Amino acid sequence: MPQKRVKLKLKSNAKKPLMIIGVILLVIVILLVFYFNRIGELKNLGYSEEAAKSIIFKFKYSYVMNIGENKTLNAAFSSDDYKEDNLDNYAKIDYENQEHLISNINKLLNKGYSVDEVNLIISKGDDESVSDFAKREKVKYIEEFLSVDYAKLENLDRYVAYKEKENDDAETTVLYVNMDFDKEDYVDPLVIDDFDDYVLVNKHRQLSSKYVPDDLVTIDEEYVKADGEIEIERNVAKAFYDMAEAASKEGLELMVSSGYRSYEDQEEITNTYLELYGQNYVDNYVAKPGFSEHQTAMSLDIASKSVNTFVESDEYSWMMDNAYKYGFILRYPRSKEDITGYKCEAWHYRYVGKKIAKYIKENNITYDEYYVMFLDD
Asked: Which of 105, 165, 345, 376 is the most exposed place for a label (fewest CB within 10 A)?
């Protein structure tokens, strides 16, 4: 006879633990779904996974969602330096890509700087300069100088010293100090190795002997008013040809008397003029080796084919009115000798591109000033 199947029944006291385990597992699943859903929402806002986890575990999900995307908050929640007391301040401080951003914000706030002051400090420096500044006792009146667009945190003490000496306004002080006017000419210059179309060269910014332009070409012989070949950067040559062609339509003949000169070339020229005319002449008219714009290959000495003294030629008058249209500026104008550090050179033109040349022309400033205001990082 077939055996009867016996149905096993769990005792009531065995069902309860299983039900509890089931409920716990269900709760865990719900919590995980809830957790990962919120992680996803925060990541969609732009927060990193690390920051998102920290936000949830610190019970700041609603706070962050109400604010929305905020890079400084993202950095704060991702950092071991996060401080709950500074949370509202983090949200008001503009993000800067600095390794010790949150640590430095904490230190600056702790010293009594306002949020606006902290924003100024971190925006005007890099990680190193901000970290150094955060170690100092609180500095008064930082807004006077750091509110200037092109101010640098690392120069703050120099701004203060220069203003006390010269009594210029804050904007002029920042401009002049950034141009190193508080230093002696040729003393402790910034030395530049790498080629850059926009490189600034003056008596405080020196090209190393290794500095060589990337793309030199030889000026067409028909435009050369000198012995031997003249080289220049390719884009400068193209702009010059366009300019010379436009001038020729008005019966004018633009020529080139000098272009690229190597460090060694400038060294030879300096020694020659020193022997002929003395130190005072060299200081006013001849750049020392490494301090000549001609080494950049972005500058040309322009000449007239028919008139030997360029400033007396029709070509000079035409250049003064039209050079900027082709991206060239008169590098050392007469009215700006105190800024450039050189006597006027009516023949010396620097290629900077049409946009910059137009701005310099319209605002009657030098390339030194433009560079400090817009290009100097």
From this structure: 165
Q: In this predicted model, what pLDDT tens digit does every residue of 132-167 receive, in sequence order?
A: 999 999 998 899 999 999 999 999 999 999 999 999
8 A C-beta contact, residue 339 and residue 204: no
Sequence-distant (≥ 6) Cβ neighbours of residue 216 within 8 angstroms = 231, 232, 233, 234, 260, 297
